[in-house]
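ok so for the tutorial part 2 we go from a plain amino acid sequence to predicted structure tokens. step 1 is just haveing the sequence, like this:
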Amino acid sequence: MSQTMTRSALEDILVRIRDVRIGILGDFCLDAYYMLDSRASEISLETGLPTRPVKTQRYSLGGAGNVAHNLWAMGVRRLWLFGVVGPDPFGKEMVGMTEAMGMNTTGLLVQEEAWDTHVYTKPYENNREQSRIDFGNFNKLHPATAERLLEALEESLAQLNLIVINQQVLSGIHTPTFREALVRVMAHHPEVTFIADSRHFSDAYNGAIRKINIQEALRMSGHPQEMAEWVSSPEMERIAGTLHQRWRKPLFVTRGEHGCIAYDETGYHELPGLLIISPVDAVGAGDSMLAGIAAGLGAGSSCLDAADAGPDELSRNIAAAYAEHTS
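step 2 — the prediction. this is what the tokens look like for a chain of 327 residues:
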């Protein structure tokens, strides 16, 4: 069991991550929030239907972009992005947001055909989210785009300490052919650390450290996912040990309020969750966890220390501590 990270240890990580260089390869998404106000509605002359006026709008990075933003918030300023956007205003918005934070977007490619930027459009009315409108569900990655993307990654590897592999959607970059080619890249560059966080293909990324959640761990080890709320420590150790033996790489298993598991060559380590009394929006907690782990590993921390630096939502505390540390 890990002891709670001390303030001095946390500050040491905050200092070291300033020089970390991390690449993020994955499904870059945009969250679009439209706040509707029916008081300005009128009847459309063309359709005879009431319009839905937008009073305010805002955009935030999602998927791989959220991981990049969390790393940036923690003080990692050297970030390289590798992904695909569409020739649309949303793609331009995403590139503009990331470039404004100083991220390297030369690997954020535009596919001119058969690709829309992945966008989750969320209209709100009376403070309640309405039916979401999604873009990008029918994307098709062209072989030429996949080749260019992997070439951009390989050309940058010598500059990077660590690569985060993000897989968010089934209609993204992680086609079967792309996954196979990415595994070959990892095999050709064993000196580079890769960490993968995948919703659907964790088993595919041979050569990478894995970050998974408890439901994924149960599914991949042949256990019912309904067990997630009551897995005992001995059973959790057996599950993590099975996956570590399969992959021969360290792995991290997040367990929500129950904390995190780290398993590497030193064995099984269980870290407790945080007691948070006030209401918390848990959306993106996994990305925060991944960012904390990636920053720690990139700075040379052990798997245990990296896990201790990144339990769900703790990386948000790291970001706050960083702001205090530099003020």
